């Protein structure tokens, strides 16, 4: 199975975040397709010129003109069933979309346990606390 990369555009140009995500996607899979969500099909041409992308899938919808993450997450969910990986940039847009794509059945907070010992570092505890907060936020959004 291949990877699907969510392309973010700045006008008609591919964002730097999406270019970095393409580099990561190529490490995960030899077959990488791109998904461009836009309100204007002419904007997708810049994604086709990126090296390493097999196919560019374009979804044109007028409601995407103002970065509507609710609409975008539904459109992405319909497309991503054929892929093993979904990769996106580290932008606010992607960070708002990705949690909406995660089924709540993947998380079971009541069964999560942590084992700490004398070798546990403060940075590990901070990371664990951030992860716990993220999971709680995801559960709230998905319920």
Task: Please outline what is shown here.
The protein has 143 residues and is of the alpha/beta class. The protein has helices at residues 16-28, 45-48, 69-79, 92-101, 122-142; strands at 2-7, 9-10, 13-14, 32-38, 53-60, 83-87. The protein is built from five helices and six strands.
Describe the structure.
The protein is α/β, with parallel strands linked by helices. It has two domains: 100 residues, 3-Layer(aba) Sandwich (Rossmann fold); 38 residues. 41% of the residues lie in helices and 21% in strands. About 9% of the residues have low confidence.
**CATH architecture name of the largest domain:** 3-Layer(aba) Sandwich
Quaternary structure: single chain
Which spans have pLDDT < 50 for at least 5 consecutive residues? Answer: 104-116
Alpha carbon gyration radius: 17 Å
Tell me the β content: 15-25%
Q: Name the CATH superfamily classification of the largest domain.
A: HUPs
Number of domains: 2
Count of separate DSSP helical elements: 5
Structural class: alpha/beta
**What average pLDDT do the residues reach?**
77
Largest sheet: 4 strands, parallel
Give me the count of strands.
Answer: 6
Q: Which term fits the overall shape?
A: globular
Ends distance:
30 Å
| Order of strands, widest sheet | 5-4-1-6
What's the CATH class of the largest domain, please?
Alpha Beta
CATH topology call of the largest domain: Rossmann fold
Q: In sequence order, what are the helices and strands, one letter per element?
A: EEEHEHEHEHH
Helicity level: 40-55%
């Amino acid at each position: 199975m291949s990877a699907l990369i969510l392309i973010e555009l700045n006008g008609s140009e591919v964002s730097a975040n999406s270019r970095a995500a393409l580099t990561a996607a190529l490490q995960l899979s030899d077959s990488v397709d791109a998904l461009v969500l836009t309100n204007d099909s002419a904007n997708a041409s810049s994604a086709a010129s990126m090296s390493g992308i097999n196919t560019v899938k374009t979804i044109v919808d007028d409601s995407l003109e103002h970065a509507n993450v609710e609409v975008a997450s539904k459109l992405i969910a319909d497309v991503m069933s054929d892929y093993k990986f979904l990769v996106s940039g580290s932008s606010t847009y992607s960070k708002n979309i990705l949690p909406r794509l995660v089924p709540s059945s993947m998380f079971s907070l009541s069964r999560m346990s942590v084992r700490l010992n004398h070798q546990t570092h403060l940075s590990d505890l901070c990371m664990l606390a951030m992860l716990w907060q993220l999971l709680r936020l995801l559960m709230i959004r998905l319920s």
